[in-house]
């Protein structure tokens, strides 16, 4: 008998269901003696022993469905070792559930925080296989994560729609794209949508440069300017602050997010009307795009192969176009940022896109 | 020789180009001796005499294109009669352009404000035919306006995406839909998207009712609640204020829009995490949906017929499924609101949707 | 106790689930004592007594889902009265199931054939309420059917895509749109997609006219011609044949469908390369569009109202924008064709669209 | 002065305009003294000297537009060296145009055939830079071509729609996906769409295996089976024929394409109703997806860099995620097939997808 626990953790994204379907189909075409324990709402389900017994049929027809049939929750890594009010050590609780159910392994789908906890469980001796899930594509050790391309598609569609209305009026438009720490989604969507200015957490901006770009466009007879701005975009000044100082500054900010702050600054410095669009959680929603479905299915099948071979302690990854495995200890806790000097950024600058950092 | 002036005014929307294409194709399949003057950026072009000479070819291939090839601007009706700093009377300026170019008629595409000015020009003796353009579907005298169904599609798509991510987490989601004065888009998109609570300018809400609905849903085991909220949604208290008082209150509001205000109130009264999505101007953008293209093409063709028959002073409209004409004086300046007692609202309440007004 | 049987019959379409959800939500917000019997695969389920007991929860989350959770089948009206090989009279069998389960009424969702059988059951004394489902919008007594607008959207999207590739090459493109007897979908999609020639079952075409239109376009410098052709498009010659003769001719046709026949004729008469697209059953598939969801929800709620009021023997319909009821006996067996003389066709001709009937 | 000729050749696809925009923007942000000669309809324009002078403005706003603003045509490589009826040697004609216009280089966008001719021109001494365009992703030397992901998206969308209608009826559905020689699009779309059987030109099928799979599914209680079939799918028997014999057999085939042939065979061997969908040229149409826009923009920018550096004789390619250059002589004339033994196929088989080759 093969007993597999499965959970999805962190912010949800597209193709979580597609990936789990891949794992289950991959295992169940080879073996009949499989029990699948679906833990509810992420690590919480593992901690408190909340799960459903699932059959292959539960994974049929979910390839195209957004969200996760298991539910998810954010469970901060830092608190995993901190006992609850009632004295519960969450790591011990998870181990307890694992051993009590006599599981052969855990399949864990998640992003950066999730991988830290997954690696911790590995260190504690549990058999773990993980899948790289996040719209942010910021996981170290893999060229791609599922959810990313779908999020890019949605953010791009938003910019596209703004483009047509932008040509009718003479305005500045800000589209706030998801990404607090990394800017991959903003970078791709910005280029795909033909944004004029792209602001990323990795490349601090100067509001004067932004104003200059807008005014130069006006002089060149362009009616509008479109900014694709990551949630975590940061000014050069703020980038000099210490982390703690910046957090305090953010907490006091009178705007709900960066887009609103930028809008006021631009309105003041350029005298242009500014309009804001915040697609927000739509970027995590809806059916996964074809790319993500193929990718999630492949990593799911690969995870099945690892489990059938009893190869544990790995994240399934894509490297140079091939699906492969990477030791968890190598990837956990590391973020993959946009490198301001990478060729992609250079190509973007070459076609005249401004990153707000220089004229 | 037939000399036609054409302009698009007010907030832009989908199918403006489709409608103009219908007008021009409809006229040019009948007559060869046509000159088309495309005024730039709405009434502004007529006031200052800015126009391009257009040929049928300019209207080819624009059926599916969003925005307006003529550009548009908001030109407040109230200021039309107020002379400029340099003493320019704008109404006289428009008449001057009209007579100087020896126009046979003006084709004007716009919403409520646009129609007031169009009717004014009619009263001044100009030949005018108008087309009902607005995402709000709030024009009196027509069952439908083009742009409306496309905006509903986009807002619905937004709610759909939120729905899939909502099922993964346990949260309240607010989607802020366009509509400051009327709630047609929010009502349709809310129902199409399966929103649990729909807030319209025409039906003031009680925050206690909203909290109650959310908590009842939680008790019934539903993880999430989705609110489709019109920009102009208003509380019962605020609805009692005088218009001026309310405007002053709004001006002091610390939130950029109603969604953010509601979010804080809900967070306080229900202790739920709330997430906000503001699709904003995306609702005016992109290619028109099939419905709008058909509708816009038909009203365009009808406008062509009126012009060929020298029937002026009408808005082209849809009534009971037929394309027809309505005297401008009957429609100008009147808004078509959502009637809180209409059968549509009753049907929505019947299937359990809350409008925040009663339990 | 209120016992409701429900079935979906005939070709499937979008918004069947949305409509059933509307019925069930509408009833269950008013009454707790409801039993819902979902018959499987259309009338077949009623005949053979195959059903599932369904709860309101089964209808939750299906608003946006295509297909039908009950399954469907085509059950020719003509055979309903003909005993089976094993002597089963199907009408009696249906009555038997109805009375055995002690049903209060049947909710039947379907198109033309379905309504004939529904009316027959009504005549036999059963309580019946029907909902107008078909992509064809060919039901007599209602201005609209659900499924129609979604099918138009999909066919339009097909023509849109062809349009962009058509501009690159110098070719003739045929898009074969669903509709064997009526041309509503083809007419709407053809106009929405900017087709140059639209061929409908109701307006027989002359291949010489088609060739002429194509050659005139070539002379006018247009690279391509796009034809939106209904499956049941028919030549003037064939339209003169007796029904039986035409059927025989069709059976011998060496092409799988009209598009392939036309392609060869056009290739011969114009010497142009022709490309064919057959979207086929995609036109019935996928999530319903916003329009259909709203419409289906409304007719569902109205059906609930009728049931709660014990008003039976009606089809729920839309007339002049209002949801209303129509006696089944008035509508059963009648088709709503495209009237070749209606204003819509005239508007289309006015903007230069050819229907292949005249130059 | 920098004089650049540009042409798009072969079947059109998405993102051709995006790629050309990338080239022009990339060059014109660095140099002002540029002349762009846009040759019409592929090599034909170069042969007969048909071109337009284009400015950067002509490339503005075309990022999202399908098709190619230059037009295209198929110009068989084999005939390039064969003089016309009027004695015209086409290769000499192209060189003549090139030298007469005093061009510095040619930017050529195309697929396999196009690259053969491009390499020929390079051998003849012309400066050439090429971009990898084709929905088929069958170009040797690059991991990706633009157009591919967009075509996969469209084919996947087709399968998705069929899926929902398939669940309502008990049928077999065949979706015929573009690809005469290679099956990349079918493979990706088949997996993304959840097809049960995928037939590729590279993996000959056995009709008995297909029937078996369908019947096993029926026995397992699955109502429907979906086949994603490449245009060039071939049976094991036919794969044994010599190329010439097979061509003759195809010419005599009574069906317009493989889908119709398979449908009849499946109907005979399984007694199931079969429905066919042929999305056809829609797969080349419409706005490019975000992935293709980013990719096309990047290769365009890279081509600009090569031109500015006077590095000629290269195709711009993607390898291991980086945009790079590959010598034309290495890639021209070679196709990149789906390797039946690659890990991707193994992963697909692992989750239970049949390729019709084995049980």
Amount of beta strand of chain A: 15-25%
Biggest pleated-sheet summary of chain A: 8 strands, mixed
Average of the residue pLDDT scores of chain A: 95
Give the class-level CATH name of the largest domain in chain A.
Answer: Alpha Beta
| Percent helix range of chain A | 25-40%
The topology string of helices and strands of chain A comes to: EHEHEHEHEEHEHEHEHHHEHEEHH
Characterize the overall form of chain A. Answer: elongated
Structure in words:
4 copies of one chain form a homotetramer. Helices cover 40% and strands 18% of the residues of chain A. Chain A has 13 helices and 12 strands. Chain A has helices at residues 16-28, 43-48, 90-100, 112-123, 148-166, 184-192, 207-219, 236-240, 243-252, 258-270, 290-308, 328-331, 343-350; strands spanning 2-8, 34-39, 51-54, 105-110, 128-134, 146-147, 172-177, 197-199, 225-230, 274-277, 314-319, 322-327. In chain A, strands 1, 2, 3, 4, 5, 6, 11 and 12 form an 8-stranded mixed beta sheet that branches. In chain A, strands 8-9-7-10 form a 4-stranded parallel beta sheet, with helices on both faces. In chain A, strand 4 (105-110), helix 4 (112-123) and strand 5 (128-134) form a beta-alpha-beta unit. The termini of chain A are far apart. The mean pLDDT of chain A is 95. Chains C and D meet through helix 5 and strand 10 of C and helix 5 and strand 10 of D.
Give keywords.
2 domains, alpha/beta, Rossmann fold, four-stranded parallel beta sheet, 359 residues, homotetramer
Brief overview:
The structure is a homotetramer of 359-residue chains. Helix content of chain A is 40%, strand content 18%.
């Amino acid at each position: 008998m093969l007993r597999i626990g499965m959970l999805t953790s962190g912010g949800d994204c597209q193709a979580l269901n597609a990936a789990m379907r891949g794992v289950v189909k991959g295992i169940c075409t080879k073996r009949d003696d499989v029990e699948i324990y679906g833990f509810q709402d992420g690590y919480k389900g593992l901690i408190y022993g909340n799960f459903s017994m699932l059959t292959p049929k539960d994974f049929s027809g979910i390839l195209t469905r957004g969200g996760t049939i298991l539910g998810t929750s954010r469970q901060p890594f830092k608190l995993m070792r901190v006992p609850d009010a009632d004295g519960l050590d969450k790591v011990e609780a998870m181990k307890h559930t694992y051993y009590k159910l006599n599981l052969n392994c855990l399949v864990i789908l998640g992003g950066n925080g999730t991988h830290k906890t997954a690696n911790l469980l590995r260190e504690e001796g549990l058999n773990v296989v993980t899948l790289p899930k996040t719209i942010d594509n910021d996981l170290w050790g893999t060229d791609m994560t599922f959810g990313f391309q779908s999020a890019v598609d949605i953010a791009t569609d938003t910019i596209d729609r703004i483009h047509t209305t932008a040509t009718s009026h003479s305005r500045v438009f800000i589209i706030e794209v998801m990404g607090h720490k990394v800017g991959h989604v903003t970078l791709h969507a910005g280029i795909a949508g033909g944004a004029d200015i792209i602001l990323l957490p990795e490349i601090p901006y100067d509001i004067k440069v932004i104003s200059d770009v807008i005014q130069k466009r006006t002089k060149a007879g362009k009616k509008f300017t479109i900014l694709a701005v990551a949630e975590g975009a940061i000014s050069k000044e703020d980038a000099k602050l210490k982390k703690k100082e910046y957090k305090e500054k953010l907490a006091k900010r009178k705007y709900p997010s960066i887009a609103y702050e930028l809008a006021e600054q631009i309105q003041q410095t350029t005298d242009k009307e500014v309009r804001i669009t915040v697609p927000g959680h739509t970027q995590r929603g809806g059916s996964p795009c074809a790319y993500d479905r193929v990718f999630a299915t492949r990593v799911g099948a690969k995870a099945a192969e690892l489990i059938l071979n009893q190869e544990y302690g790995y994240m399934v990854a894509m490297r140079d176009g091939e699906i492969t495995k990477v030791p968890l200890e190598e990837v956990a806790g590391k973020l993959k940022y946009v490198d301001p000097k990478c060729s992609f950024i250079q190509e973007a600058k070459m076609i005249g896109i401004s990153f707000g950092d220089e004229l």
